[in-house]
## 1
Amino acid sequence: MIQSFPSRIVLELTPLCNLACFMCPRHYIGEKDGYMEENLFLRLVDEVAQENPKAVVLPFWRGESCLHKLFVPLLQYAIDKGLRIHLSTNGHFMSEENCRIFYQCEFITFSIHTDIGYQNALKLIQNKPKDSQTTFQISFVDTEKTTNKYLQDCVRDSSLLEFDSVRLYKQHTIGGEFGKNGEKKHQKRHFCPKLVHTFVVSSDGYFSRCNHIWEPCKEMNLKESSIKEVWHSKIMQKIRQEYPDKHCDPCDQWSGHTCGEVWNKKNGQIIHKIFN
Ligand SMILES: C[S@@+](CC[C@H](N)C(=O)[O-])C[C@H]1O[C@@H](n2cnc3c(N)ncnc32)[C@H](O)[C@@H]1O
Ligand code: SF4
Ligand code: SF4
C-alpha cells in the first residue's frame, strides 16, 4: 500500500511568517527560524523530478514561503523541471516576480487572514494572463474574522469572483494540538493516508511523517540522505508498523473531518461539496 516514492512532497522554504494568525499552530512550535539552503532545495527537487516526476511539490509548511529571499529562483527551478507546484500563501507578497511564479503554479490557494490578503487575491485573479493554467483557490478557516467578512461575498457571486474554487476549512487544532476538538472520536480508525503518500522536509533538512506533526524528527537529515532513503528508513517503517503510535494516536486528521467545504464551478454551475 505504501507508495515506492511519495507523491506529495512538502519542501518548507521557511517557518518564518509576517503574520501571527491566532489559530495557527506556529505559536506552539519551538524552532521557527531559518531558511532552506539553496543547494538542499535544488537537490531535493532533482530527486523528485527523477524518481516521481508527476509528484506534487508543496513548497510551504509552517510559515510564509514568500519570505525566502530566493523564493522566485527556487520555485522557477522546480517549475522548469516540470514539477507540479501547489502553494499556499497569505497574499502579502505580490511583487511582479512573485506573481509570475504564482501564474505558473498548478494550484495556488490564497489563505484569507487579512483585508490586504483578500484585496491582493482579487487583484491577482483580475490580472490573470490568458495563458495561465493555474487553478486559483481562495481559502478560509471557519473561526477567522475574515471568514465572516468575506466568505459570503465569494460564494454568492455567480462566478465565485473568478476564482476556480472557494474553500472553507474547519479549524484543525486547539492550542496547537490536533484531535483536541473531540469530534469524530466514535469513528473506527483506519490507516492514515498521509503515511502512504506524503513526505515533509523542514527548512533545516529534518523530516516529518506528515504536515500535521509540526515538530520534525531529528533522527535523520535530508542534508545527508535522499528522500528515498528516509522514506524507506527503519524510522519510517516503524512509524507505519506501529500506527497509531503515541504521536498519531491523539490526532484526528486521518479521518479528514476538518477538510471542510468547497465551492467549485462545473459547466457554468456552482457545486457545493461538504467533505466527509
Ligand atoms: C500554516 S499556513 C502556511 C502557508 C501560508 N502562510 C498561509 O497562510 O497560507 C497553511 C494553511 O494552514 C491553514 N491553517 C493555519 N492554521 C490552521 C488551523 N488551526 N486550522 C485549519 N487550518 C489552518 C492556513 O489558513 C493555510 O491555509
Ligand atoms: S496561517 Fe499562514 S499566515 Fe497565518 S500565521 Fe500561520 S503561517 Fe502565518
Ligand atoms: S494520524 Fe495524524 S499525525 Fe499521524 S500521520 Fe495521520 S495526520 Fe499525521
Note: The longest helix spans residues 38-51.
## 2
Amino acid sequence: MGVFDDLVGQERAAQTLRRAAAAAAEVLAGGSGAGMTHAWLFTGPPGSGREEAARAFAAALFCADGGCGHCDMCHQVMVGSHPDLETVRPQGLSYGIKDTRQLILRAAGAPTLGRWRVVLFEDADRATEGASNALLKAIEEPPPRTVWLLCAPSPDDMMITIRSRCRVVTLVTPPVAAVAHVLATRENVPPDMAAFAARAAQGHLDRARRLALDADARGRRESVLSIPASLTGVGECVAAAERLVKTAEEEAAAVTSVLDEAETAELRKVYGEGSTGKGLNKGLVRGGAGALKELEERQKSRATRTKRDVIDAALLDLVTFYRDVLAVQFGAQGVELATEDRRADLEKVARSSTPEDNLRRIDAIMLCRRRLAANVSPQMAVEAMTLSLRSPRLLP
Ligand SMILES: [Zn+2]
C-alpha cells in the first residue's frame, strides 16, 4: 500500500502527485521530467488533509519506488526524521521574515541523501508580507534540487506572485462515507460511531477521528449545540457565552500545556539549568534567559491562536446547526443532517423562527468570527453573538 492510498477521497490530487513523482525520478536519471516542478501549493478546506498530501508527495520524491509506504525513506518522512525534509509549522499567529530567511538558507543546501531537498510549509498563509516577499525570491530562483511544498486553505490566501509560480494541488472535502470507512477500518471504531462522527464532522477527518475516539470532544460538541435552544433570556445568553469561552479555554489549555512543558524542559536542559550553577558560563546563562523569554512569547502566541481556533470550530458547529434548522424549515427530505442527533432542538428552533431569522443568525455568527479574527475580546464578541441569536430581528 503506497503513501497516496492513505489520502481519503483525494483520487484526482493523488493521480497528479503520482505522475509528478515519476517525472521527478526521470529528472534524477537525467531525463526531462516534464510534469515535475519545484514549487507546489496544496490547497483545500480544513480537514481535507493538505499537509498529509504534501507529506505523501515528499515521501514519493525520496522513495526509490515512488512512495511505497514501507521503505526507510517513506518511514522517515512519515515520522518526520528525514534529513532532507524540513517541515515548517508556524506556531504563532504569523510567521516572520527572520524565520523565513533562516529557512531559505537551510533550504538552499544540497540534499544529504542525494535526491531532493524538500520544504513542507504548513499554514503558509500565516507568512507575513515581508516573509512572503522573501519566500517569493527563493521560489523564483530555486536551487536545482530544492522543492517547496506550501499549504494554505485556498490559493487566494497566498500572494498572487507566489501563487502564479506554484502548481496548485486542490484537495476536496472527503465524502462522509469515505471518512466513516477510514474510521471503521483503520481506527477500529464501531460502525455506528464512525457514521455519527463522520456526519457530525462534515468530512473533516481529524475532527471526525477526535469525535469518534474522545468522549470529551463529544461532550464539548454537545455543550455547543445545546446553546441555540437554551437562549430564552438575556441572562441565559450571557451564561451561554461564558460557557463557550470557558470550554474553549480549557480545551486550548489541555492542548498547549503538554507542548509547553516539554519545550521548556528541553530548553532548560540545553542551557544546563538544574545544575548547581557553579562554574557555569555566564554568557550561556544570559543566553538561556533570552532564549527562555523568546520561547515563552512563542508559547503565549500559540496559546492565543489555539484558543481562537477552538472558539472558531465551536462557531462553525453553530453555523451548521442553523443551516440544519433551515433545511428542516424548507422540508429537505432524505438528507442526513450533520446535527441529526439534535433533532428535537432543530425542530423546536425551526418552529419558533422564520428562515430569515436563521439567515440573520448565521450572519451574526460570521460577524463574531470576523471580530475574533480582529482581536476583539472573545467574551465580548461571543456575548454580542448569543444576544443576536436570541433576537435576530434586532440586527441591523
Ligand atoms: Zn518508499
Note: The chain has three domains: 3-170, 176-213, 234-394.
